[in-house]
Amino acid sequence: MSEEKRYDLVIIGGGPGGYVAAIRAAQNGLSVACVEMRGRLGGTCLNVGCIPSKAMLQSSHLYEEAREHFDVHGIQTGDVKLDLKTMLGRKDKVVTDLTDGIEGLFRKNKVDYIIGTGRIIDNETVEVSPGGRKKKQTLSTDTILIATGSEVATIPNVEIDEQRIISSTGALELSKVPKSLIVIGGGYIGLELGSVWRRLGAEVTVVEFLDRITPGMDGEISKRMKVILEKQGIRFMMGTKVTEAKALKTKVNLTVEPAAGGDAQTLDAEVVLVSVGRKPYTDGLGLENVGIETDRGFITVDEHFQTSAPGVFAVGDVIPGPMLAHKAEHEGVVVADYLAGEPGHMNYDTVPGVVYTWPEVASIGKTEEQLKDAGVKYAVGKFPFSANARARTIGEKDGLVKIIAEKETDRILGVHIIGPDAGTMIHEALAAMELGGTAHEVAEMCHAHPTLNEAIMEAALAVNKHTINM
Ligand code: FAD
Questions:
Q1: Is the pTM here over 0.70, yes or no?
Q2: Is the distance from the beta carbon of residue 186 to the nearest atom of ligand 1 less than 6 Å?
Q3: Which residues lie below 8 Å from residue 97, measured CB to CB, with a gap of 6+?
Protein backbone atom coordinates (compact mmCIF):
# COMPACT_ATOMS: atom_id res chain seq x y z
CA MET A 1 0.00 0.00 0.00
CA SER A 2 1.45 3.39 -0.91
CA GLU A 3 1.71 6.00 1.85
CA GLU A 4 -0.52 8.40 -0.11
CA LYS A 5 -3.43 6.02 -0.61
CA ARG A 6 -6.65 7.52 0.66
CA TYR A 7 -9.52 5.20 1.53
CA ASP A 8 -13.24 5.78 1.28
CA LEU A 9 -13.65 3.86 4.53
CA VAL A 10 -11.34 2.71 7.32
CA ILE A 11 -12.91 0.26 9.77
CA ILE A 12 -11.45 -0.28 13.23
CA GLY A 13 -12.28 -3.80 14.42
CA GLY A 14 -12.61 -7.00 12.38
CA GLY A 15 -15.48 -8.69 14.26
CA PRO A 16 -18.95 -9.42 12.81
CA GLY A 17 -19.78 -5.69 12.68
CA GLY A 18 -16.48 -4.65 11.11
CA TYR A 19 -15.69 -7.48 8.72
CA VAL A 20 -19.21 -7.67 7.30
CA ALA A 21 -19.28 -3.89 6.79
CA ALA A 22 -15.86 -4.11 5.07
CA ILE A 23 -16.97 -6.76 2.58
CA ARG A 24 -20.29 -5.06 1.85
CA ALA A 25 -18.69 -1.63 1.43
CA ALA A 26 -16.07 -3.09 -0.94
CA GLN A 27 -18.85 -4.80 -2.94
CA ASN A 28 -20.57 -1.41 -3.06
CA GLY A 29 -17.49 -0.02 -4.81
CA LEU A 30 -15.76 1.71 -1.87
CA SER A 31 -12.02 1.38 -1.16
CA VAL A 32 -11.81 -0.17 2.31
CA ALA A 33 -9.23 -1.00 4.96
CA CYS A 34 -10.02 -2.98 8.11
CA VAL A 35 -7.71 -2.62 11.11
CA GLU A 36 -7.70 -5.51 13.60
CA MET A 37 -5.39 -5.83 16.60
CA ARG A 38 -6.16 -9.47 17.51
CA GLY A 39 -4.06 -10.86 14.65
CA ARG A 40 -7.09 -12.83 13.48
CA LEU A 41 -10.32 -11.65 11.92
CA GLY A 42 -13.78 -12.57 13.24
CA GLY A 43 -13.70 -10.67 16.53
CA THR A 44 -15.13 -12.01 19.78
CA CYS A 45 -17.74 -14.05 17.91
CA LEU A 46 -15.45 -16.27 15.88
CA ASN A 47 -12.44 -16.36 18.20
CA VAL A 48 -13.78 -16.51 21.76
CA GLY A 49 -17.57 -16.27 21.51
CA CYS A 50 -20.36 -17.72 19.38
CA ILE A 51 -18.33 -20.20 17.37
CA PRO A 52 -16.04 -21.91 19.93
CA SER A 53 -18.91 -22.03 22.45
CA LYS A 54 -21.21 -23.68 19.91
CA ALA A 55 -18.48 -26.15 18.92
CA MET A 56 -18.13 -27.13 22.61
CA LEU A 57 -21.91 -27.25 23.07
CA GLN A 58 -22.19 -29.65 20.13
CA SER A 59 -19.35 -31.93 21.29
CA SER A 60 -20.51 -32.02 24.91
CA HIS A 61 -24.10 -32.69 23.78
CA LEU A 62 -22.97 -35.67 21.70
CA TYR A 63 -20.90 -36.95 24.62
CA GLU A 64 -23.89 -36.78 26.95
CA GLU A 65 -26.19 -38.34 24.35
CA ALA A 66 -23.79 -41.24 23.83
CA ARG A 67 -23.36 -41.75 27.58
CA GLU A 68 -26.93 -41.32 28.74
CA HIS A 69 -29.46 -41.52 25.94
CA PHE A 70 -28.38 -43.88 23.15
CA ASP A 71 -29.62 -46.98 24.94
CA VAL A 72 -33.31 -46.05 24.48
CA HIS A 73 -32.70 -46.23 20.73
CA GLY A 74 -31.26 -49.71 21.16
CA ILE A 75 -27.71 -48.53 20.67
CA GLN A 76 -25.24 -50.05 23.13
CA THR A 77 -22.12 -47.94 23.46
CA GLY A 78 -20.13 -49.57 26.24
CA ASP A 79 -17.86 -47.30 28.24
CA VAL A 80 -17.98 -43.85 26.61
CA LYS A 81 -14.78 -41.92 27.34
CA LEU A 82 -14.00 -38.23 27.09
CA ASP A 83 -10.93 -37.09 25.14
CA LEU A 84 -11.02 -33.41 26.11
CA LYS A 85 -7.82 -32.58 24.22
CA THR A 86 -9.34 -33.75 20.93
CA MET A 87 -12.60 -31.93 21.73
CA LEU A 88 -10.74 -28.65 22.34
CA GLY A 89 -8.60 -29.24 19.25
CA ARG A 90 -11.70 -29.69 17.10
CA LYS A 91 -13.12 -26.46 18.50
CA ASP A 92 -9.86 -24.63 17.66
CA LYS A 93 -9.89 -26.00 14.12
CA VAL A 94 -13.48 -24.86 13.54
CA VAL A 95 -12.37 -21.39 14.68
CA THR A 96 -9.25 -21.17 12.51
CA ASP A 97 -11.02 -22.52 9.43
CA LEU A 98 -13.64 -19.79 9.77
CA THR A 99 -11.26 -16.93 10.62
CA ASP A 100 -8.96 -17.92 7.73
CA GLY A 101 -12.07 -17.92 5.56
CA ILE A 102 -12.66 -14.25 6.32
CA GLU A 103 -9.09 -13.40 5.28
CA GLY A 104 -9.89 -15.14 2.00
CA LEU A 105 -13.08 -13.11 1.63
CA PHE A 106 -11.10 -9.90 2.24
CA ARG A 107 -8.67 -10.86 -0.54
CA LYS A 108 -11.53 -11.76 -2.88
CA ASN A 109 -13.28 -8.44 -2.23
CA LYS A 110 -10.06 -6.39 -2.21
CA VAL A 111 -10.38 -5.19 1.38
CA ASP A 112 -6.98 -4.21 2.85
CA TYR A 113 -6.51 -6.13 6.11
CA ILE A 114 -4.19 -4.18 8.39
CA ILE A 115 -2.97 -5.88 11.57
CA GLY A 116 -2.51 -3.51 14.49
CA THR A 117 -4.25 -1.27 16.99
CA GLY A 118 -6.20 1.60 15.46
CA ARG A 119 -6.47 5.02 17.01
CA ILE A 120 -8.50 7.92 15.68
CA ILE A 121 -6.32 11.02 15.24
CA ASP A 122 -8.91 13.20 13.51
CA ASN A 123 -12.08 12.69 11.43
CA GLU A 124 -9.99 11.61 8.42
CA THR A 125 -7.01 9.90 9.99
CA VAL A 126 -6.46 6.58 11.74
CA GLU A 127 -3.07 5.69 13.17
CA VAL A 128 -2.20 1.99 13.32
CA SER A 129 0.33 0.59 15.82
CA PRO A 130 1.31 -2.89 14.65
CA GLY A 131 3.06 -3.68 17.93
CA GLY A 132 6.64 -4.81 18.55
CA ARG A 133 9.24 -2.81 16.70
CA LYS A 134 7.17 -2.31 13.60
CA LYS A 135 6.61 1.28 12.48
CA LYS A 136 3.31 3.03 13.02
CA GLN A 137 1.23 3.60 9.93
CA THR A 138 -1.17 6.43 9.17
CA LEU A 139 -4.29 5.83 7.09
CA SER A 140 -6.19 8.71 5.56
CA THR A 141 -9.85 8.22 4.76
CA ASP A 142 -13.13 9.93 3.99
CA THR A 143 -15.02 8.00 6.68
CA ILE A 144 -14.21 5.91 9.75
CA LEU A 145 -16.30 3.06 11.14
CA ILE A 146 -15.76 2.03 14.75
CA ALA A 147 -16.53 -1.66 15.30
CA THR A 148 -14.37 -2.36 18.33
CA GLY A 149 -16.94 -4.52 20.09
CA SER A 150 -16.99 -5.38 23.76
CA GLU A 151 -15.02 -7.00 26.54
CA VAL A 152 -15.86 -9.09 29.59
CA ALA A 153 -17.52 -7.15 32.43
CA THR A 154 -16.22 -7.75 35.93
CA ILE A 155 -17.47 -7.32 39.51
CA PRO A 156 -15.59 -5.84 42.47
CA ASN A 157 -13.35 -8.16 44.52
CA VAL A 158 -13.48 -10.90 41.91
CA GLU A 159 -10.26 -10.86 39.94
CA ILE A 160 -10.17 -12.96 36.79
CA ASP A 161 -6.88 -14.91 36.49
CA GLU A 162 -8.11 -17.29 33.75
CA GLN A 163 -6.87 -20.22 35.88
CA ARG A 164 -9.23 -20.64 38.85
CA ILE A 165 -11.37 -17.53 38.29
CA ILE A 166 -12.14 -17.50 34.61
CA SER A 167 -14.06 -15.48 32.04
CA SER A 168 -15.97 -16.99 29.11
CA THR A 169 -12.65 -17.04 27.23
CA GLY A 170 -11.04 -19.22 29.92
CA ALA A 171 -14.14 -21.42 30.01
CA LEU A 172 -13.46 -22.36 26.38
CA GLU A 173 -9.95 -23.54 27.23
CA LEU A 174 -10.11 -25.56 30.48
CA SER A 175 -7.65 -28.43 30.00
CA LYS A 176 -9.41 -30.64 32.56
CA VAL A 177 -13.01 -30.97 33.67
CA PRO A 178 -13.32 -29.28 37.08
CA LYS A 179 -15.04 -31.27 39.83
CA SER A 180 -17.11 -28.21 40.66
CA LEU A 181 -17.84 -25.00 38.76
CA ILE A 182 -19.67 -21.96 40.06
CA VAL A 183 -21.03 -19.69 37.35
CA ILE A 184 -21.61 -16.11 38.49
CA GLY A 185 -24.49 -14.83 36.37
CA GLY A 186 -27.51 -16.61 34.89
CA GLY A 187 -27.39 -14.96 31.48
CA TYR A 188 -27.13 -16.87 28.20
CA ILE A 189 -23.34 -17.13 28.13
CA GLY A 190 -23.13 -18.51 31.67
CA LEU A 191 -25.91 -21.02 31.03
CA GLU A 192 -24.38 -22.22 27.76
CA LEU A 193 -20.89 -22.66 29.20
CA GLY A 194 -22.27 -24.06 32.45
CA SER A 195 -24.15 -26.64 30.35
CA VAL A 196 -20.95 -27.59 28.48
CA TRP A 197 -19.01 -28.38 31.68
CA ARG A 198 -21.96 -30.07 33.40
CA ARG A 199 -22.33 -32.41 30.46
CA LEU A 200 -18.61 -33.16 30.65
CA GLY A 201 -18.91 -34.06 34.35
CA ALA A 202 -18.62 -30.90 36.52
CA GLU A 203 -21.05 -30.12 39.35
CA VAL A 204 -22.39 -26.75 38.25
CA THR A 205 -23.98 -24.08 40.43
CA VAL A 206 -25.25 -20.82 38.98
CA VAL A 207 -25.30 -17.85 41.36
CA GLU A 208 -27.65 -15.14 40.11
CA PHE A 209 -28.29 -11.72 41.63
CA LEU A 210 -31.86 -11.46 40.31
CA ASP A 211 -34.73 -13.79 41.13
CA ARG A 212 -34.84 -15.08 37.54
CA ILE A 213 -32.39 -16.30 34.91
CA THR A 214 -31.96 -14.77 31.43
CA PRO A 215 -33.40 -11.32 32.21
CA GLY A 216 -35.31 -9.88 29.27
CA MET A 217 -36.66 -13.26 28.22
CA ASP A 218 -40.42 -13.94 28.47
CA GLY A 219 -41.03 -14.80 32.14
CA GLU A 220 -42.90 -18.05 31.52
CA ILE A 221 -40.18 -19.35 29.18
CA SER A 222 -37.43 -18.30 31.58
CA LYS A 223 -39.11 -20.22 34.44
CA ARG A 224 -39.57 -23.27 32.25
CA MET A 225 -35.93 -23.13 31.18
CA LYS A 226 -34.74 -23.05 34.79
CA VAL A 227 -36.83 -26.12 35.64
CA ILE A 228 -35.40 -28.03 32.66
CA LEU A 229 -31.80 -27.06 33.49
CA GLU A 230 -32.37 -28.05 37.13
CA LYS A 231 -33.65 -31.43 35.98
CA GLN A 232 -30.40 -31.80 34.04
CA GLY A 233 -28.45 -31.24 37.26
CA ILE A 234 -27.56 -27.52 37.32
CA ARG A 235 -28.09 -25.98 40.76
CA PHE A 236 -29.31 -22.40 41.05
CA MET A 237 -28.86 -19.89 43.87
CA MET A 238 -31.18 -17.04 43.00
CA GLY A 239 -31.33 -13.57 44.53
CA THR A 240 -27.73 -14.02 45.61
CA LYS A 241 -24.92 -11.49 45.42
CA VAL A 242 -21.24 -12.40 45.16
CA THR A 243 -19.16 -10.04 47.29
CA GLU A 244 -15.70 -11.60 47.03
CA ALA A 245 -13.74 -14.41 45.42
CA LYS A 246 -10.39 -15.69 46.71
CA ALA A 247 -8.38 -17.98 44.46
CA LEU A 248 -6.49 -20.57 46.52
CA LYS A 249 -4.20 -23.31 45.27
CA THR A 250 -6.83 -25.93 44.51
CA LYS A 251 -10.11 -24.06 44.83
CA VAL A 252 -11.87 -20.71 45.01
CA ASN A 253 -13.60 -19.38 48.11
CA LEU A 254 -16.62 -17.37 47.12
CA THR A 255 -18.41 -15.10 49.57
CA VAL A 256 -22.10 -14.58 48.81
CA GLU A 257 -25.00 -12.91 50.54
CA PRO A 258 -28.72 -12.53 49.80
CA ALA A 259 -29.22 -9.70 47.28
CA ALA A 260 -31.97 -8.34 49.54
CA GLY A 261 -29.53 -8.23 52.47
CA GLY A 262 -28.71 -10.84 55.11
CA ASP A 263 -25.98 -13.11 56.36
CA ALA A 264 -23.00 -13.89 54.17
CA GLN A 265 -21.89 -17.45 53.47
CA THR A 266 -18.88 -19.00 51.78
CA LEU A 267 -19.07 -21.38 48.85
CA ASP A 268 -16.19 -23.45 47.43
CA ALA A 269 -15.57 -24.51 43.87
CA GLU A 270 -12.59 -25.75 41.90
CA VAL A 271 -13.27 -23.10 39.25
CA VAL A 272 -15.43 -19.97 39.17
CA LEU A 273 -16.71 -18.55 35.89
CA VAL A 274 -17.48 -14.83 35.92
CA SER A 275 -20.29 -14.28 33.43
CA VAL A 276 -21.96 -11.03 34.40
CA GLY A 277 -22.20 -9.50 30.94
CA ARG A 278 -20.02 -7.53 28.56
CA LYS A 279 -19.13 -3.86 28.24
CA PRO A 280 -18.29 -1.74 25.20
CA TYR A 281 -14.60 -1.60 24.31
CA THR A 282 -13.10 1.76 23.34
CA ASP A 283 -9.79 1.76 25.24
CA GLY A 284 -7.14 3.95 23.60
CA LEU A 285 -9.36 4.55 20.58
CA GLY A 286 -8.98 8.34 20.62
CA LEU A 287 -12.70 9.13 20.93
CA GLU A 288 -11.73 12.37 22.69
CA ASN A 289 -9.73 13.51 19.65
CA VAL A 290 -12.93 13.93 17.63
CA GLY A 291 -15.40 14.57 20.45
CA ILE A 292 -17.39 11.33 20.23
CA GLU A 293 -20.15 11.17 22.82
CA THR A 294 -20.80 8.05 24.86
CA ASP A 295 -23.53 6.94 27.23
CA ARG A 296 -22.43 4.50 29.96
CA GLY A 297 -19.52 3.58 27.70
CA PHE A 298 -21.65 2.91 24.60
CA ILE A 299 -21.00 5.19 21.61
CA THR A 300 -24.05 7.30 20.83
CA VAL A 301 -25.21 7.08 17.18
CA ASP A 302 -28.10 8.39 15.09
CA GLU A 303 -30.35 6.28 12.83
CA HIS A 304 -27.57 6.10 10.21
CA PHE A 305 -25.00 4.93 12.80
CA GLN A 306 -23.27 8.33 12.59
CA THR A 307 -21.57 9.31 15.86
CA SER A 308 -21.44 12.87 17.17
CA ALA A 309 -18.23 13.31 15.09
CA PRO A 310 -18.86 14.06 11.38
CA GLY A 311 -17.72 11.22 9.15
CA VAL A 312 -17.25 8.77 12.02
CA PHE A 313 -19.74 5.89 12.33
CA ALA A 314 -20.11 3.02 14.79
CA VAL A 315 -21.84 -0.41 14.84
CA GLY A 316 -22.02 -3.60 16.89
CA ASP A 317 -21.49 -4.21 20.59
CA VAL A 318 -19.88 -0.79 21.02
CA ILE A 319 -23.24 0.95 20.43
CA PRO A 320 -26.49 0.42 22.37
CA GLY A 321 -28.75 -2.56 21.64
CA PRO A 322 -28.55 -6.32 22.08
CA MET A 323 -24.94 -7.53 22.14
CA LEU A 324 -25.38 -10.14 19.44
CA ALA A 325 -23.30 -11.05 16.42
CA HIS A 326 -26.18 -10.96 13.92
CA LYS A 327 -27.24 -7.52 15.16
CA ALA A 328 -23.64 -6.29 14.63
CA GLU A 329 -23.50 -7.90 11.17
CA HIS A 330 -26.77 -6.42 10.05
CA GLU A 331 -25.77 -2.97 11.27
CA GLY A 332 -22.53 -3.42 9.31
CA VAL A 333 -24.50 -4.10 6.13
CA VAL A 334 -26.86 -1.16 6.70
CA VAL A 335 -24.03 1.34 7.33
CA ALA A 336 -22.04 0.08 4.33
CA ASP A 337 -25.10 0.57 2.12
CA TYR A 338 -25.77 4.01 3.58
CA LEU A 339 -22.19 5.11 2.86
CA ALA A 340 -22.61 3.96 -0.74
CA GLY A 341 -25.87 5.90 -1.06
CA GLU A 342 -28.04 2.78 -0.90
CA PRO A 343 -31.11 2.47 1.33
CA GLY A 344 -30.62 0.35 4.45
CA HIS A 345 -33.02 -1.08 7.00
CA MET A 346 -32.48 -2.27 10.56
CA ASN A 347 -35.54 -3.47 12.45
CA TYR A 348 -34.66 -3.83 16.12
CA ASP A 349 -38.14 -5.26 16.85
CA THR A 350 -37.27 -8.45 15.01
CA VAL A 351 -33.75 -9.30 16.19
CA PRO A 352 -33.98 -12.91 17.38
CA GLY A 353 -32.19 -14.06 20.53
CA VAL A 354 -31.14 -17.67 20.98
CA VAL A 355 -29.72 -19.56 23.95
CA TYR A 356 -27.97 -22.67 22.66
CA THR A 357 -28.51 -24.88 25.69
CA TRP A 358 -30.41 -28.11 25.13
CA PRO A 359 -33.25 -27.66 24.65
CA GLU A 360 -32.58 -24.35 22.94
CA VAL A 361 -34.49 -21.21 23.78
CA ALA A 362 -35.31 -18.67 21.09
CA SER A 363 -37.27 -15.43 21.22
CA ILE A 364 -38.29 -12.65 18.93
CA GLY A 365 -40.36 -9.53 19.50
CA LYS A 366 -42.21 -8.63 22.67
CA THR A 367 -42.59 -10.62 25.86
CA GLU A 368 -45.87 -10.79 27.79
CA GLU A 369 -44.33 -8.59 30.50
CA GLN A 370 -43.41 -5.88 27.97
CA LEU A 371 -46.90 -5.87 26.47
CA LYS A 372 -48.54 -5.70 29.89
CA ASP A 373 -46.30 -2.75 30.84
CA ALA A 374 -47.19 -1.00 27.58
CA GLY A 375 -50.92 -1.65 28.11
CA VAL A 376 -51.25 -3.55 24.80
CA LYS A 377 -54.12 -6.03 24.58
CA TYR A 378 -52.96 -9.41 23.29
CA ALA A 379 -53.90 -13.04 22.85
CA VAL A 380 -51.57 -15.97 23.51
CA GLY A 381 -51.42 -19.33 21.74
CA LYS A 382 -49.23 -22.16 23.02
CA PHE A 383 -48.36 -25.63 21.85
CA PRO A 384 -46.22 -28.15 23.76
CA PHE A 385 -43.60 -30.28 22.02
CA SER A 386 -45.00 -33.30 23.91
CA ALA A 387 -47.90 -33.15 21.41
CA ASN A 388 -45.69 -32.70 18.34
CA ALA A 389 -45.10 -35.89 16.38
CA ARG A 390 -41.58 -35.05 15.23
CA ALA A 391 -40.49 -34.10 18.75
CA ARG A 392 -41.73 -37.53 19.87
CA THR A 393 -39.77 -39.33 17.15
CA ILE A 394 -36.54 -37.62 18.15
CA GLY A 395 -37.27 -38.10 21.86
CA GLU A 396 -37.30 -34.38 22.71
CA LYS A 397 -40.65 -33.54 24.21
CA ASP A 398 -39.64 -30.84 26.70
CA GLY A 399 -40.77 -27.30 25.92
CA LEU A 400 -43.34 -25.33 23.97
CA VAL A 401 -44.00 -22.68 21.35
CA LYS A 402 -45.72 -19.53 22.57
CA ILE A 403 -47.09 -16.95 20.15
CA ILE A 404 -48.36 -13.56 21.27
CA ALA A 405 -50.56 -11.60 18.87
CA GLU A 406 -52.25 -8.23 19.11
CA LYS A 407 -55.84 -8.80 20.25
CA GLU A 408 -57.45 -6.44 17.79
CA THR A 409 -55.43 -7.09 14.62
CA ASP A 410 -54.06 -10.63 15.23
CA ARG A 411 -50.61 -9.31 14.14
CA ILE A 412 -47.82 -11.37 15.71
CA LEU A 413 -45.95 -9.34 18.32
CA GLY A 414 -43.73 -11.96 19.89
CA VAL A 415 -42.75 -15.62 19.57
CA HIS A 416 -40.95 -17.56 22.29
CA ILE A 417 -39.82 -21.13 21.90
CA ILE A 418 -38.15 -23.54 24.26
CA GLY A 419 -37.46 -26.84 22.58
CA PRO A 420 -35.30 -28.80 20.18
CA ASP A 421 -33.74 -26.61 17.46
CA ALA A 422 -35.68 -23.56 18.68
CA GLY A 423 -32.86 -21.38 17.26
CA THR A 424 -33.61 -22.59 13.74
CA MET A 425 -37.40 -22.65 14.16
CA ILE A 426 -37.56 -19.01 15.28
CA HIS A 427 -36.77 -17.90 11.73
CA GLU A 428 -40.27 -18.86 10.62
CA ALA A 429 -41.51 -16.30 13.15
CA LEU A 430 -38.90 -13.80 11.93
CA ALA A 431 -40.14 -14.07 8.34
CA ALA A 432 -43.78 -13.79 9.41
CA MET A 433 -43.15 -10.78 11.65
CA GLU A 434 -40.94 -8.93 9.15
CA LEU A 435 -43.79 -9.26 6.65
CA GLY A 436 -46.36 -8.04 9.20
CA GLY A 437 -47.99 -11.47 9.40
CA THR A 438 -50.90 -12.50 11.62
CA ALA A 439 -51.36 -15.64 13.70
CA HIS A 440 -54.19 -16.65 11.37
CA GLU A 441 -51.89 -16.38 8.32
CA VAL A 442 -49.22 -18.59 9.92
CA ALA A 443 -51.89 -21.09 11.00
CA GLU A 444 -53.18 -21.26 7.39
CA MET A 445 -49.78 -22.15 5.90
CA CYS A 446 -49.40 -25.82 4.96
CA HIS A 447 -46.50 -27.02 7.13
CA ALA A 448 -44.60 -30.20 6.26
CA HIS A 449 -45.33 -33.24 8.42
CA PRO A 450 -43.77 -34.41 10.64
CA THR A 451 -41.73 -31.34 11.53
CA LEU A 452 -41.00 -29.36 14.67
CA ASN A 453 -42.34 -26.29 12.86
CA GLU A 454 -45.82 -27.77 13.00
CA ALA A 455 -45.72 -26.68 16.66
CA ILE A 456 -45.52 -23.07 15.40
CA MET A 457 -48.56 -23.66 13.19
CA GLU A 458 -50.45 -25.20 16.15
CA ALA A 459 -49.51 -22.35 18.51
CA ALA A 460 -50.69 -19.90 15.83
CA LEU A 461 -54.00 -21.80 15.63
CA ALA A 462 -54.28 -21.66 19.42
CA VAL A 463 -54.04 -17.85 19.38
CA ASN A 464 -57.55 -17.91 17.92
CA LYS A 465 -58.66 -20.81 20.12
CA HIS A 466 -58.32 -23.51 17.47
CA THR A 467 -56.31 -26.70 17.86
CA ILE A 468 -55.71 -29.83 15.82
CA ASN A 469 -53.40 -32.07 17.82
CA MET A 470 -54.38 -30.99 21.33
P1 FAD B 1 -16.34 -7.97 18.37
O2 FAD B 1 -16.73 -9.27 17.85
O3 FAD B 1 -16.00 -7.85 19.81
O4 FAD B 1 -15.12 -7.49 17.48
C5 FAD B 1 -14.41 -6.33 17.75
C6 FAD B 1 -12.99 -6.48 17.26
O7 FAD B 1 -12.36 -5.21 17.33
C8 FAD B 1 -12.16 -7.43 18.12
O9 FAD B 1 -11.60 -8.44 17.34
C10 FAD B 1 -11.06 -6.53 18.70
O11 FAD B 1 -9.81 -7.20 18.77
C12 FAD B 1 -11.01 -5.39 17.70
N13 FAD B 1 -10.53 -4.13 18.25
C14 FAD B 1 -10.97 -3.48 19.36
N15 FAD B 1 -10.32 -2.30 19.49
C16 FAD B 1 -9.47 -2.21 18.44
C17 FAD B 1 -8.54 -1.22 18.03
N18 FAD B 1 -8.37 -0.09 18.70
N19 FAD B 1 -7.81 -1.46 16.91
C20 FAD B 1 -7.99 -2.61 16.20
N21 FAD B 1 -8.85 -3.57 16.55
C22 FAD B 1 -9.59 -3.35 17.65
N23 FAD B 1 -23.67 -13.56 19.81
C24 FAD B 1 -24.59 -14.21 19.06
O25 FAD B 1 -25.27 -13.56 18.27
N26 FAD B 1 -24.77 -15.55 19.14
C27 FAD B 1 -24.05 -16.31 20.00
O28 FAD B 1 -24.23 -17.53 20.04
C29 FAD B 1 -23.08 -15.68 20.81
N30 FAD B 1 -22.33 -16.40 21.67
C31 FAD B 1 -21.39 -15.77 22.42
C32 FAD B 1 -20.63 -16.54 23.29
C33 FAD B 1 -19.66 -15.94 24.06
C34 FAD B 1 -18.85 -16.80 25.00
C35 FAD B 1 -19.42 -14.55 23.93
C36 FAD B 1 -18.33 -13.89 24.73
C37 FAD B 1 -20.15 -13.77 23.05
C38 FAD B 1 -21.15 -14.38 22.30
N39 FAD B 1 -21.95 -13.64 21.42
C40 FAD B 1 -22.91 -14.28 20.67
C41 FAD B 1 -21.81 -12.17 21.28
C42 FAD B 1 -21.01 -11.83 20.02
O43 FAD B 1 -19.76 -12.44 20.09
C44 FAD B 1 -20.87 -10.32 19.90
O45 FAD B 1 -22.14 -9.73 19.96
C46 FAD B 1 -20.22 -9.95 18.57
O47 FAD B 1 -18.93 -10.53 18.47
C48 FAD B 1 -20.11 -8.42 18.44
O49 FAD B 1 -19.48 -8.10 17.24
P50 FAD B 1 -18.66 -6.75 17.07
O51 FAD B 1 -18.14 -6.76 15.68
O52 FAD B 1 -19.45 -5.61 17.52
O53 FAD B 1 -17.44 -6.86 18.11
A1: yes
A2: no
A3: none
